[in-house]
Amino acid sequence: MAAVFGAYPLFDRAAAPVVLAVGDALDTSPDPAGSTGVAGGELPDGTATLDDDLPAITGLDPELREAVRQAAADAAADDIDFWITSGWRSPAFQEHLFDEAVRTKGLAEARRKVSTPEKSNHVSGKAVDIGPTEGDYWLIEHGTDYGLCQAYSNEIWHFELLTEPGGTCPPMLDGAAG
Ligand SMILES: [Zn+2]
């Protein structure tokens, strides 16, 4: 089931999933064809909430988005607020991030810290980066209630749906960045 971008209130639980109507795409729709910038998943202010109508958010897998939304609501009840620091990314944006890392850190370090477009689960909409740190710690402690798991041992902020709600997370991967 494809996500719809912009035509429906995305975070209204009552709204049934609907098929993406390509012709109806708004300016804020993700551009899988290869944009960088906001259309490619960049967050103009560095962070976003799940309610923002930005490609980084609307491009996420709806199941992941709902899990994070429920977790955020429960965290708020614990007086912990967290938000998305990176969500869906176009292949071009991911490539840009990788190229930037190569330029600033060198190839070996870049490979440890940034995935390629082929490997990154941000590109498939199945990964979110969460901040601030106290939000990361809350999710590390409580994320399995929602099926959310820290995927990489070197990234406390990167979460994916890797188990059933109440399940057990698989062992974290080392070094391979998301
Ligand atoms: Zn990540």
UniProtKB/TrEMBL annotation:
CDD domains given in the database record: Peptidase_M15_like (cd14846)
Domain of life of the organism encoding this protein: Bacteria
UniProt region (Disordered), positions on chain: 29-51
D-alanyl-D-alanine carboxypeptidase-like core domain mapped to chain residues: 60-141
InterPro entries the record matches: VanY-like_core_dom, Zn_M74/Hedgehog-like
Annotated protein name in UniProt: M15 family metallopeptidase
Species annotation: Promicromonospora umidemergens
